[in-house]
Amino acid sequence: MTPDRIAAASLTIARITPKTQWAFVELKMSSGLSGIGEATAQGRERALAASFPGIADSLIGMPEATLRQTIQRMELPSLTEAAIASALDQASWDISGKRQGLSIAATAGSQSRTHAGVYANINRRTLDRSPAGFAASATDALSAGHEAVKIAPFDEVTVKDARLAEARTAIGAGLARVRAVRELIGDRRLMVDCHWRFSPDTARYVVDAAAELGLHWVECPLTETEDHLKELRSLRSRANKRGVLLAGCEEMVRCAGFAPFIEAEIYDVIMPDVKYAGGIEEMLAIAELAEKHSVQLSLHNPSGPICHAVSLQFIAMLEKPDLLEMQFDETPLFDELLLEPGLPPVASGRAALPSVLGCGVALSPTKLQSLAVSP
User: Which of 309, 302, 363 is nearest to 336 (CA)?
Assistant: First the structure.
């Protein structure tokens, strides 16, 4: 039998909102099968467009059976290359699932569930950045079926604000937003993403405030560099004593990138992203290592519908996943970009896996092309 070979590989970058672009990779096989993956890397669209042709050209004519092995051997020196490799891997699993008449979860591992617990990331849809604006977004998330919320409230804080005395006012504005959401959602789970904005001193201050506000976790308080590992470990201990978890590692690549943080007990929760980790098999290795060290795993997933669909597939393989992040209502294009039947709605804090084979969803070619831009 003639092996199925890669006939074409394409990258499409779509303008979604004035501040958001999503990137999608499609593989087409000589048999006519095709698969989709997501390579969204916010702010790196030009680098994606520049790097993709060289990687894609090397794959043309390659048998499907060797594609994922090739991806595993790729050097991934930056998040750009990692996003491309991860999207290609997603697309290959999408194709394999369609070929075998199975979901990605059933094809790659063992599908142990049909639903995943999710939480709403309301940050990007909150254009009114006042405390009332955040509370209004949280209200909408609860009305849409969510039971847990995450926000990124520290707009005024920058990494230059290293001294606590100078940063108190900026931090206070963020805490006011957190307080407004806490009062609105009651005792439901609330998480805060700090986007690496703090110094050790200001991070300790925020962790103490987080305990008073009953936060479930504080995410990415410090830049994840070697010189901050000791500080992060100390910060985790401080947070745990106050009933708060520490989370991070959303931009790490491959299991080797996560290992130092898992093995050194830096975080309570690690957050691999299917767009960056290097492929489904790398994700499984990361999950196995995390479980070995009793570290929780909660997937980072703040972008488009293909990343969400593949993340759902991965969650379905795991025995004890934590909640999956879900970009809430930034744009109706999250659903409108998909062909029917699309993604099932959230209900009671849970999202169902789509019933279609492969990753479970497909993009509308017409709609996607109408949004395509040149970076």
Answer: 363
- Please give the C-alpha separations between residue 59 and each of 32, 38, 49, in angstroms, as whole numbers: 16, 18, 16
The span from the CA of 282 to the CA of 275, in Å, is 11
**Residue 159 token pair:** 């990494």
C-alpha dihedral sign at 229, 311, 275, 178: negative
pLDDT digits (tens, 9 = 90+) for 37-77: 999 999 999 999 999 999 999 999 998 878 999 999 999 99
Q: What is the pTM of this model?
A: 0.96
Give phi and psi for 29, each to the nearest 5: -100, 160
Q: Which residues contact 201 (CB under 8 A, 6 or more apart)?
A: 162, 163, 164
Decide: 134 and 177 in contact? Cβ < 8 Å.
yes
In the predicted model, residues of the chain with pLDDT beneath 70 are 1, 161-162
Q: How far apart are CA 40 and CA 304, in angstroms?
A: 8
Predicted confidence at residue 1, as pLDDT, reads 66
Determine which helix (DSSP H) or strand (DSSP E) holds 140, and give its type and residue range: helix 131-143
Residue position matching structure tokens 């491309």: 84
CATH of the domain at 187: 3.20.20.120
- 352: β partners: 115
* pLDDT value of position 232: 97
* Angle (deg, nearest 10), helices 79-100 and 280-292: 100
Residue 60 CB contacts under 8 Å (≥ 6 apart), including other chains: 6, 7, 8, 9
Residues 193 and 285 placed together within one structural domain of the fold: yes
177 and 244 fall within a common domain? yes
300 plus 314 within the same structural domain: yes
* Separation CA 359–CA 295 (nearest Å): 27
What pLDDT score was predicted for residue 37?
98
How would you class 21 by CB atoms within 10 Å of its CB: exposed for 0-12, middle for 13-18, buried for 19 or more?
buried
- Domain ranges, residue 137: 107-359
Q: Is 277 helix (H, G, I), strand (E, B) or coil?
A: coil
State the pLDDT at residue 159: 75
Q: How far apart are CA 79 and CA 83, in angstroms?
A: 6
| pLDDT score, position 138 | 98
